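pinning this so it doesn't scroll away 📌
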Amino acid sequence: MVFHAMSDSNAQRSRFVHRLFDAISGRYDLFNRISSLGLDQGWRRRTIASLRLTPGMRVLDLASGTGDLSRWAAMDLVPLGGVVACDFSFPMLRFSRRKFERVPAAHWHVQLTQAKAEALPFAEQVFDAATIGFALRNVSDLDTVFRELFRVMKPGGRLGLLEFGRASNPLLRAGQKLWLSTGVPLIGALTTGKLWPFTYLRRSILRFMVPEEVVRRLKEVGFTQVKVEPIQGGIVLVYQALRS
């Protein structure tokens, strides 16, 4: 296993995010469906499609949450290949297992692993593709995560990162901010009984680095053919890259 030292601030952030996702794991899917107006599964499917998966591949779904990306990937890999769903939250992984058991075609192709994104317990160059869904904002050290992804992916492997962005159109951007400030916290409180995780969600989206900075960091690690595909006017972004 590879370990990386974290600063006190990074460690504190990691503990906070860990506590947050443990707290909302049981209602996370319901919140996602309602707050995205039912669009989130289409975004995930689009991300998996960008990986161009074929049966026999081995895929890493990092920060897998409740396993939606893992499920879509596994369906593309049947009857061969497999997905490693990796997350630091045990409650999220436990919820994933129950979900996979309801989808027999995918169940046998998903392996659950609890680990931090900054210190992956995998050998070098073992995955044909990798993905992260809505978690770039939550890791304690994004550069370390990108280095770890590069380390465990095979040359020629495809990377697909799904993340929130900020709308390019001023009117749409104003609507996005209003939704994040009012609709999202309200839905979060009603579905989970907790408000504080969703005030964090708003801050993390609006304060996250611009797409050009994410692209730059991916290239610095060694990824090539890096591009960004905006969805819903830039509210959602799919980053695509090739492991050189």
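📌 and the second one:
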Amino acid sequence: MYKPNDEDIISVINLIKKESERFQNPIVTEIAGLTNDPFKVLISCLLSLRTKDMVTALASKRLFKIADTPEKLAELSEKRIENLIYPVGFYKTKAKRIRAIAKVLIEKYNSNVPESMDELLMLKGVGRKTAGIVMCYAYNKTESIPVDSHVHQIVNRLGWVNTKTPEKTEQALMSIIAKEYWHELNDILVKYGQNICVPISPFCSKCVVAKYCMMVGVSRSR
């Protein structure tokens, strides 16, 4: 049975990184690269939760055209925000949440997005993945490995970890992966998870790291 070691982990990361260059960047990474604005990274990441990238992209564009600062967002009514971000998943809850966050940023942080994991996690509705994305892609600080459903699923399939939640996966990955790879891991695995190692019936026949994969939990592949 395959057991991952440091050399194999690095090989997998490099192979997936090279393969993923042909895929479109996740929308939040794209926004971070285009704007370098922590506020837009934070809000777009919150909008992206349980929402497809194309929907997030259009919703973010509509919202930021009207409100691209905490002050402008806080001035909008929840209903107006709902209309701008629809049809992202849980748009009513997200409208209320991002408006509340905008107000906190104004009142507590002089309209700036906090530059620490601990303070980001104090914002209601911001979890470790979102906080990690902001730290990595808005502030270029590597203090964690942002883990979403794609990252969680892929590293469990590979057999690198045996975890039940993204939070547990993050901690496990940080203990086995050299810190120099933390920053890019979310980006490349999300792209790979959207195109090759998809949630249902992954394209194992096209996978560049198939020989390294234990295929944990994969009952059907293509």
